[in-house]
Write a structure and sequence with these properties.
- The chain is α+β, with helices and mostly antiparallel strands.
- The chain has 14 helices and 30 strands.
- The strands form 6 sheets. A 6-stranded mixed β-sheet has the order 2-3-1-4-5-6, sandwiched between helices. A 6-stranded antiparallel barrel has the order 7-8-14-11-10-15.
- A hairpin with a 3-residue loop joins strand 17 and strand 18.
- Helix 7 packs across helix 8 (about 345-355) and helix 12 packs antiparallel against helix 14.
- The chain is globular, with a radius of gyration of 29 Å.
- Residues about 35-45, about 50-55, about 550-560 and about 575-585 have low confidence and may be disordered.
- Bound molecules: guanosine-5'-triphosphate.
- Guanosine-5'-triphosphate binds near residues 15, 16 and 80.
- Keywords: Chloroplast, GTP-binding, Hydrolase, Membrane, Mitochondrion, Mitochondrion inner membrane, Nucleotide-binding, Plastid, Protein biosynthesis.
- It is found in: Mitochondrion inner membrane; Plastid, Chloroplast.
- It comes from Guillardia theta (strain CCMP2712) (Cryptophyte).
- This is Translation factor GUF1 homolog, mitochondrial.
- Belongs to the GTP-binding elongation factor family. LepA subfamily. Belongs to the TRAFAC class translation factor GTPase superfamily. Classic translation factor GTPase family. LepA subfamily.
Length: about 600
């Protein structure tokens, strides 16, 4: 297929607006045979099917004939969520255009806008397209007006399709061919290709999807990975049709996979440049993944540590953006400290551990990375992602917390409630745009630490599920930060330690101590549950001892004559209390404790 007959494009959409269904329809319409019958080929992972989100991109090359000409249409799938926005933007960098899919009954949502902005930033041709027009409550006129108001497209430009029935899908392919420009890039130049997705397969090893920008690459050739400066040899290359189908070469403008002698998935990085030699300039925009949400992952049963270790290593083969360190906790034993791109990323990782590896795990409350400037090195900020690395306040000049640019889209009647929540979470620079009669877009800057716990659930609650939230990282801001520790009879429970903005310390302290009181069994002695900041107690609960009244143990009061025995018994009881208290050996059932710690 000549370069002018190639189109590289993506479908971008809000979750559930029908991207997978439409992708399947495109495969079917172009007679792209599936080796096994599958409902939705494009969404492979169980998590993806259940949650209806695309985590790992699945791309496919489609052959299509129109007006007697053969076309090669490369459908490049993008992960469906902002947590993966870096991966989305790399996938988009492999395209010349996108189909912006909008549910004709739901209309524009926050992710539609975020995706649109990303596509515009990448200079792509955008085809606005309404989906699900077969639905009885589809309202194409209203949605068209909305698209016009929010994104500026004329009504005539907006296509109408149903991925389910197939209506309008041929017209959509025609629009892809007519509106999206073919790739450019000379075959004569040295090889330059973008890695936009990678994964690991047991027998093949590391598979990388690449978009060739310049030059060509063939079986048996050597190439260089720009970010690591390592040389490899192509063992196999081909196109996804939709399964891996070997070809002899890939040329400028084409999309395909390569297998080479890479040992570890960490060597293949999304956004990296594959090139012929060191003189070739890297493609713009490569970034190593930056984890923004951290949590501890522990086996519920300590003897499962090895199994968990194995399961995590396996998952890491296909997700090199998770950062992992071993850690140990007095309450939970051996486990891992994990860094994720965002909350959803963390959730997906947990779910995959549970579903694909049957791991019984506990995941601690998430924290965000803080930056700190210390007196001993005032010129530099260091990042702290683990509460246990938190420096003593006396050594600190200043702290910084990460903030995000949030976009919340909702029906106007929920604006008041949502704004109130945002304000209570320290939102600033609030800005509103009314999209049409019913919808309003609220933009603001929010500390990431304020949204990692329950913000999303709260937003959904306030708006009866109608508000949607998107956010992107927006750097750091100065903040006063406190480390809150929890103690049972003076002994710290390290797994509960958390770092929060100082205005939240008391609230967090109270919440956790109350919860501890609720779940802890009464002991033979009194238990003090304390939350502390620095040396100061900020919240306290007392769990009363179960009082075994030794004086009336046998039903009758120990007689006045037997003073020594009475004393002895009381002494013993006191000693018992003292002993237990001294050791700090508060007995707590594992289950009860887990309900305090567990975030899931
Ligand atoms: P992500 O992978 O998270 O982006 O979700 P998705 O956009 O791929 O959504 P998916 O294709 O899984 O569709 C979501 C739901 O909408 C499913 O229940 C589909 O059956 C339904 N759906 C998709 N397209 C259509 C359509 O054209 N008409 C109707 N009536 N339903 C559709």
């Amino acid at each position: 297929v000549p370069q002018e007959n190639i189109r590289n494009f993506s479908i971008i959409a809000h979750i559930d607006h029908g991207k997978s269904t439409l992708s399947d329809r495109l495969l079917q319409l172009t007679n792209t045979k599936l080796s096994e019958q599958r409902d939705q080929y494009m969404d492979k992972l169980q998590v993806e099917r259940e949650r209806g989100i695309t985590v790992k991109a699945q791309s496919a090359s489609l052959f299509y004939q129109q007006d007697g000409k053969d076309y090669l249409l490369n459908l490049i799938d993008t992960p469906g969520h902002v947590d993966f926005s870096y991966e989305v933007s790399r996938s988009l960098a492999a395209c010349e255009g996108v189909i912006l899919l909008i549910d004709a009954s739901q209309g524009i949502e926050a992710q539609t806008l975020a995706n649109h902005a990303l596509a515009t930033k990448n200079g792509l041709k955008i085809i606005p397209c309404m989906n699900k027009i077969d639905l009885p409550h589809a309202d194409p006129d209203r949605v068209a007006a909305q698209v016009h108001a929010a994104l500026g497209y004329a009504k005539e430009e907006i296509l109408q399709v149903s991925g389910k029935t197939g209506v309008g899908v041929e017209e959509l392919l025609r629009a892809v061919i007519e509106r999206i420009p073919p790739p450019t890039g000379s075959l004569q130049n040295g090889l330059r290709a973008l890695v936009f997705d990678t994964w690991y397969e047991t027998f093949k090893g590391v598979v990388s999807l690449i978009r060739v920008m310049e030059g060509q690459i063939a079986h048996g050739e050597k190439f260089l990975m720009k970010s690591t400066d390592k040389t490899y040899e192509v063992h196999e290359l081909g196109i996804m049709h939709p399964e891996a189908t070997p070809v002899t070469r890939l040329q400028a403008g084409q999309v395909g996979y390569i297998l080479c002698n890479m040992k570890s998935p960490a060597e293949a990085r999304v956004g990296d440049t594959v090139c012929s030699d060191a003189s070739v300039e890297a493609l713009k925009g490569f970034q190593p993944p930056v984890p923004m949400v951290f949590a501890g992952i522990y086996p519920i049963d300590a003897s499962d540590f090895d199994a968990l270790n194995k399961a995590i290593s396996k998952l890491l083969l296909n997700d090199t953006s998770v950062s992992i360190f071993k850690e140990s906790s007095n309450a939970l034993g051996l486990g891992f400290r994990c860094g994720f791109l965002g909350l959803l990323h963390m959730d997906v990782f947990r779910q995959r551990l549970e579903q694909e590896h049957n791991a019984d795990i506990i995941i601690t409350n998430p924290t965000v990375p803080f930056r700190v400037r210390l007196k001993k090195n005032p010129k530099e900020f260091v990042t702290i992602s683990n509460p246990s690395d938190f420096p003593d306040q006396s050594q600190v000049i200043e702290f910084e917390e990460p903030v995000v640019k949030a976009s919340l889209l909702m029906p106007t009647e929920h604006l008041g409630g949502v704004m109130e929540l945002c304000t209570s979470r320290r939102a600033r620079d609030l800005d509103m745009v009314y999209l049409d009669s019913g919808q309003v877009l609220l933009k603001c800057i929010l500390p990431l630490g304020e949204i990692v716990i329950d913000f999303y659930d709260k937003i959904k609650g306030i708006s009866a599920g109608y508000a949607s939230l998107e956010y992107e990282p927006a750097g750091f801001q100065q903040a006063q930060i406190s480390k809150v520790t929890f103690h049972l009879n003076g002994k710290p429970v390290d797994a509960l330690t958390t770092i929060v903005h100082h205005t939240n310390a008391e609230q967090v302290g109270r919440r956790v101590t109350e919860k501890l009181k609720e779940v802890l069994d009464r002991q033979q002695f009194e238990v003090a549950v304390q939350a502390m900041v620095g040396g100061r107690v900020i919240a306290r609960e007392t769990i009363k001892a179960v009082r075994k009244n030794v004086l009336s143990r046998s039903g009758k009061t120990v007689g006045g004559g037997d003073v020594t025995r009475k004393k002895k018994l009381l002494e013993k009881q006191k000693e018992g209390k003292k002993k237990m208290k001294r050791i700090g050996d508060v007995e707590l059932s594992q289950d009860a404790f887990l309900t305090v710690i567990d975030n899931s």
